[in-house]
Design goal:
This protein is α+β, with helices and mostly antiparallel strands. The protein is built from ten helices and 15 strands. It folds into two domains: 270 residues, Exo-inulinase, domain 1 (Jelly Rolls, Sandwich); 111 residues, no CATH class. The protein has a 15-stranded antiparallel beta sheet that branches. β8 and β9 form a beta hairpin. α4 packs across α5, α5 packs antiparallel against α6 and α6 runs parallel beside α8.
């Protein structure tokens, strides 16, 4: 957290998002023959347009093309940090942040701002996301995934931050005011060099963050002033992290629409929905989940963990989660069972129901597990399942 306070103190939020430059419509998929809304957005953004509902826009970044970096801006106070420290690039299909770097997406919006992405950390640990006001604000809300000083590596906490108005608040860290909204620990959930799934959102006073299956929800009310408009950012301090498959969604402000000549062209409702495959007709499934489900259903060697995650990801439409379970059931691969077991502990009833359906279809019995039973009864059934897996280890782990 210290690193991020240094990054933000005093000047980060005084930057105004520059008007977007018109670009070639062919720079992103969906621009060739889509309705006027996607075509208009393709002139402004280099990410793929996933969904439009009036002024609410969802964009996706696979970071395969360096031009996508143009949709982000440096979000650090230049007078505090040497420009050479902001080492940001796209490399190997991932967004790379090194040193003391902070960037934010140029979309300025209101209502619910939602971000979903995968992060891969180094063995250093000052990494997080941030919600900032677009202009002349001394307040921000920061979600820290990893922190070396206050909570040690593996910390997971979200806090509201602000600067006192005293002279020197831009350089004196003692004048920075920050308060936790919630805290947790993801140390045992995230491995160095492996992707961790992250989901965050802010809607008015309400903030939410999830890393893998560790999540927290709270309110910044009383901890900082209300942000009526915000932008989404990523940061590292004395660290290195890479990001991939970023999905952002927010309702664009009238000011942003006007600055980018979008106001007359975005009165549309459109969604990029697959027409083939197991998810045909189902929207709202993030690209990486969709790819894994499609590959596994066609007999490929997809990452089973991604499909199990899809079952447990509440932001995915229920039908999409059901399809993820169905493709596991269709393959009946015993090696999917150990990966799926975590879903039996979930607090979400649909996750428990779908998971036990998968396990029963592969193993042949449910060991008395009921998704609606008490935690104690569910735990007893899981112990029986684990004993079964131990006795037939070669089948499930070999």
């Amino acid at each position: 957290m210290t690193g991020f306070r240094i990054l933000l103190a005093g000047g980060l939020l005084t930057l105004l998002a520059a008007p977007a430059k018109a670009g070639d419509e062919s720079a992103t998929s969906g621009g060739e023959a889509g309705p006027k809304g996607p075509r208009a957005l393709n002139r402004v953004f280099n990410g793929r347009v996933v969904k439009i509902k009036k002024k609410r826009v969802t964009l996706f970044y696979d970071f395969e093309d360096p031009i996508q970096l143009k949709d982000f801006e440096d979000a650090r106070p230049p007078r505090l940090l040497d420009a050479s420290q902001n080492r940001v690039r796209i490399e190997g299909g991932r967004l790379v942040l090194e040193g003391s770097s902070s960037i934010r997406h140029r979309m300025e919006g209101t209502g619910e701002l939602r971000g979903h992405f995968f992060v891969r950390i180094s063995d250093q640990g000052n990494v997080g996301t941030v919600f900032t006001e677009p202009l002349l604000s001394d307040f921000f809300v920061c979600m820290t995934l990893f922190d070396q000083r206050f909570y040690k590596n593996g910390a997971f906490f979200l806090c509201a931050c602000g600067l006192h108005e005293d002279e020197g608040a831009d350089t004196d860290m003692a004048l920075v005011n920050w308060r936790d909204i919630f805290a947790g620990n993801v140390k045992n959930k995230v491995k160095v060099g492996e992707d961790a799934e992250v989901e965050v959102y802010k809607d008015g006073w309400t903030e939410f963050a999830r890393c893998e299956d560790v999540e927290g929800k709270g309110s910044s009310k009383g901890k900082c002033k209300e942000m009526r408009t915000y932008q989404f950012g990523l940061w590292v301090h004395n660290s290195r992290a890479t990001f991939d498959d970023l999905t952002l969604s927010i309702e664009l402000t009238d000011k942003f629409l006007e600055l980018n000549n979008l106001k007359a062209e975005l009165d549309a409702e459109w969604e990029d929905i697959p027409q083939t495959g197991p998810l045909a007709g189902i929207g709202g499934v993030p690209a990486r989940f969709r790819s894994a489900i499609d590959a596994y259903a066609s007999g490929g060697t997809a990452d089973v963990r991604m499909i199990v995650r899809a079952i447990a990801t509440k932001s995915i439409p229920d039908r999409g989660r059901e399809v993820a379970a169905e493709v596991l059931i269709a393959r009946k691969d015993p090696k999917a069972v150990p990966t799926a077991i975590d879903g039996l502990y979930s607090e979400d009833a649909l996750t428990r129901k779908l998971t036990i359906g998968v396990i029963k279809s592969i193993v042949g019995k449910d060991f008395g597990y009921s998704a609606s039973a008490s935690p104690k009864k569910r735990s007893e059934a899981i112990q029986k399942l684990n004993s079964h897996l131990a006795l037939e280890r070669a089948r499930y782990y070999g």
